[in-house]
Amino acid sequence: MGYNAGSKPLNVFPLSTIDEGKTVRIVKIVGGRGLVRRLYEIGLLPGVEIQVLRNSKHGPVIIRNSVSGTFSLGFGVARKIMVEVM
Amino acid sequence: MACHEVPSNTKIKVKQRSVIVGIIGNPNVGKSALFNKLTKGKAWVGNWPGVTVEKKIGKINLGEASVEIVDLPGIYGLTAHSQDEIIARKFLLEEKPEIVIQVANAVNLERNLYLTIQLLEMNLKLIIALNMVDLAEEEGVEIDIHGLINELKIPIIPIVAIKGVGINQLIETMIEQIDKPIPSFKLDYGEEIEEAIEKISKLIGSSMRKLDFEVDSRWLAIRLLEDDNDVVEQLKSRGLESIIRESKRIKDELEARFNKSVEVLMIEKRYHYILSLSKKYVKRGPARKSLTIFTNKLDEVLTHPIIGLMIFVSMLYLLFKLSFDIVTPLTELIEIFFSHYVYNLFKTSFLPEIISSLLADAVLNGVSVVLIFIPNLLFLFLGISFLEDTGYLARVAFLFDKWMNKLGLSGRAVIPLLIGFGCNVPAIMSTRVLGTDRDRRLAVSMIPFMSCSARLPIYLLFTLIFFKENQIIVILSMYFVGVVTAIITAILFNNLLFKSQTVGYVMDMPPYLVPSAISVLIKSWERVKSFLIRAGTIIVSLMVVIWFLSITGPEGYLGAEALSNPELLSRSWIASFSKLLEPLFKPFNWDWRIIASLIFGFIAKEVVVSLLAVLYSAGEQGLSSVLLSSFTPLTAYSLMTFTLLYTPCMATVATIKTEIGLRHTLLIVSYQLIIAYTVTYAILLIGGLII
């Protein structure tokens, strides 16, 4: 139904490693309950596509999608969001 | 885009009733703009009970009802995890607003609908103020408002808060809704979860009389399934552990079956529903004049690791230039007005000497010390509020996240730290955005080292006298010493006290907007006002104490002329106490008069200068010659450093105490005293070697 990442994805990486300009799909959030809820609440949940606008690879990232708008995520957060490159 | 028909004979049936309306919404959706438009800027700021988060209330009259409008903190959900969420929920549950207006951003409506669903589940009478419909149109976002109204069964009013569009229709809808019943809303969570909700809400229903608060049992059941700490605590305190135990059992059973957390399942269901609404009622076509594209373009520059930083530094320079250099004539005008015109008026009045001295030397001096800061603070806050409302500060947080992380903080901490340069009090108050207690404590420990504007007069006075040629460099060096000490403090506290890492941040990057002048003005004025009230009252009352301790001593009343007579003053209480401390400052070669000024500088740092003037019995013109004869550039510099570091002023200490507790406050103050003593000693030693 668009939410579940489906069967085992092949190229899954932490969001913190994705190049600027790439569009990725969230597969899983491997954080504590608080972080998972916070991200879900703003519409960043598995199955959702996001575009990486800025990422210096060792600092925060900026992402956007039409539902959530633009968000900046700290490095620690970006490391916990597992994404699949489209 | 008219979507709601207002009968022409709308009238409130009940006379003179008072109605509470809450305004809620995600951050950056224009909540404050709508609040200002509805209340026409007439609002007062208080605190939410038990916490120091600002509560803004405005009163308006709608027909025959007097309406109290309450601005709630910006939140994404109502799960009661952060302080803001707890405040919002408590308000909704306990104050039972007759109407709740949710301000939603039309550009990305879906994200706002999550909160909408949670509000509807709480059985509240909701009106959606769909804001920024003009921007949404430019973005190519088309919302079928009629469709959504039919689906959600609540009024949705398109508005452009900043321009005042749609406000009248919103007000008419409010009047019309007051006496209407609350439409029922039920999101289907799927068979299994629904069954669980049913079971738990039945349990709740049977012990409803034990609940002394009126609340929807379905909502309580949903909250229990989502492991809501606050709800669990509430039930526990009412002896309803059995319900908690049973709901936990049901929840565990479900989780075993789905192999997934029920909370996550439920959030997913809500998003399912939101996406189905989006599919039906939101169309995204090509943008006509896209703010998103403009924002992305601008972000490429402003969030660039090098160019972005350079732009930020220039912005900061401009901000300080504006709030300190340009307003100096204004500050001087206030000073002249008070210290010459009004002062003489009091002094030469027909009142008895002691009364006129009390009024002129104590009260008036205190008032002018406070008022002198209005121009600086106002312009500083104007600048900060302006940048905040454009959306730029969110980018600054992004820029500094990497660096702040090295200090154990998230990028958001850079904003409170910067506000600290203006005044430590609002800076400490603004650490609330940091969320976790750990981050707040750390940031609060650093802020007092940010050289606030109250310390500037001390630098100005001393540099004017002792460092005329290098004034700017010497003043900048003070800021530098402060920042370095703050960084060392962060590293120290991080390793010794906290040890844990900062929880990463998740921050909205709103599109760049031209802020509304009114909203910037109101916000800045509120901040200045809070300084005036918080610090002002303390400063004035303590000026009276200083005055009293100066004109009296161990031998009794010395006479009001003690203030202008150094010989008399040296027999005062202030002198006796400072002389007691003299041995401690022997290595610094500071006499009791400096110590006395510093003691009262704890009350408010700006007092140091006025007190030095009194203690060195120097009038307006005399201070520089008196200081030149008793200070060397090195002792002047060491005194400046000590004043910067030794302890935050009383208003700041009071704020720290209310924000993070007494223990940490005592820790910070004693830590600062030790640091100040050590650094000053080091400067005197090193300086003595060089000179």
Give the helices and strands, then pairings.
The complex is a heterodimer of chains A (86) and B (691).
Chain A: E1 12-14, E2 23-29, H1 33-41, E3 49-55, E4 61-65, E5 69-73, H2 75-80, E6 81-85
Antiparallel strand pairs in A: 1-6, 2-3, 2-6, 3-4, 4-5
Chain B: E1 18-25, H1 31-39, E2 43-47, E3 54-62, E4 65-71, H2 83-95, E5 99-105, H3 109-121, E6 126-131, H4 133-139, E7 141-143, H5 145-152, E8 156-158, H6 167-177, H7 191-206, H8 217-225, H9 229-237, H10 241-258, H11 262-281, E9 282-284, H12 291-302, H13 307-326, H14 328-347, H15 353-371, H16 374-390, H17 392-406, H18 414-422, H19 424-429, H20 437-446, H21 456-466, H22 471-498, E10 506-508, H23 517-551, E11 552-553, E12 556-557, H24 566-569, H25 573-581, H26 592-601, H27 607-615, H28 623-630, H29 633-645, H30 650-660, H31 662-690
Parallel strand pairs in B: 1-4, 1-5, 5-6, 6-8
Antiparallel strand pairs in B: 2-3, 3-4, 7-9, 11-12
Helix pairs in contact in B: 3-11, 7-8, 7-10, 13-16, 14-15, 15-23, 16-23, 20-22, 21-22, 21-29, 22-29, 25-26, 26-27, 29-31, 30-31
Instruction: State the order of secondary-structure elements of chain A, H for helix, E for strand.
Output: EEHEEEHE
Q: Outline of chain B, from the CA principal axes?
A: elongated
Low-confidence stretches of chain A: 1-6
Fraction of residues in helix of chain B: 55-70%
Helical stretch tally of chain A: 2
Distance between the termini of chain B: 77 Å
Any low-confidence stretches of chain B, pLDDT <50, length ≥5? 1-15
Span between termini of chain A: 18 Å
Specify the CATH class of chain A.
Answer: Mainly Beta
Give the helix/strand class of chain B. alpha/beta
Fold-level CATH name of chain A? SH3 type barrels
- Rg on CA atoms of chain A, Å: 12 Å
Strand content of chain A: 35-45%
Q: What's the story with the biggest beta sheet of chain B?
A: 7 strands, mixed
Helix/sheet category of chain A: alpha+beta
Helix count from the secondary structure assignment of chain B: 31
